[in-house]
Design a protein that fits this description.
eight-stranded mixed barrel, alpha+beta
Length: 222
């Protein structure tokens, strides 16, 4: 038996469809606005903690100052794309809603090896695709500023975890989903690699985790 829509039913659907689509659009806007709002207020909160941390480091000296440094936050700044954000620890869905995330199991910024930071393509890392060889990336951590110079950019598949493995050089690896304006879960990952300018910090290098990243897929769209 074939199902047929009666003229009356068709007219009813035509009358109600615009209202249903409007309601759906409003729901989507509220959801997206809520996500961006949470990210904005969390970054503002982290920014205030960062300012307080810097003030305390200036006001204190000796062992107290060292303790403040060891409990410090990390800031990433990229002048080329006008980015400045506080980095959170972790790359799960919740962490990346709040800010760029440091991938557990990789080196800390300023240390020997490969430090990996990832963020969503529609928020903090929207414009890293514009970075070119020679552009500078600054990472402030533990009272010091580490400068990295962009050396390469490439596109890989989400299962290419070679880009997050430990390295013998001192690098910073930025990861985001690609293409930037793809609708739906993006099929690839954009990798921006930069090399540390100068020598790595000896104390930071001692803090490097002996473990390797356990993920079998690069962070990104779920």
């Amino acid at each position: 038996m074939r199902f047929q829509i009666t003229p009356e039913t068709r007219r009813m659907l035509q009358r109600r469809l615009p209202t249903a689509l409007t309601v759906l659009g409003v729901i989507l806007l509220v959801y997206v606005g809520t996500q961006y709002g949470q990210m904005f207020f969390e970054q503002r909160s982290l920014e205030q903690k960062w300012i307080t941390q810097q003030q305390e480091q200036v006001m204190h000296a000796g062992p107290t100052a060292n303790q403040i440094v060891q409990m410090g936050l990390t800031r990433i700044s990229i002048p080329k794309i006008d980015l400045s954000a506080i980095v959170v620890e972790g790359t799960d869905h919740h962490a990346l809603k709040l800010g760029p995330g440091h991938l557990a199991g990789t080196s800390f910024a300023g240390a020997e090896g490969n430090s990996v930071i990832t963020a969503h393509r529609d928020t903090f890392f929207r414009h890293i695709v514009e970075l070119k060889k020679g552009d500078l990336i600054m990472v402030q951590r533990d009272g010091k500023t580490y400068t990295y110079e962009v050396s390469s950019q490439r596109i890989v598949k989400p299962d290419d975890v070679s880009v997050i493995q430990p390295t013998s050089d001192n690098r910073l690896t930025l990861i985001t989903c690609y293409p930037t304006y793809y609708i739906g879960p993006a099929p690839e990952r954009l990798i921006v690699t930069s090399k540390l300018v100068g020598e790595p910090d000896a104390r930071a290098s001692r803090e490097v985790s002996s473990s390797q990243p356990s993920t079998k897929k690069l962070p990104g769209d779920q």
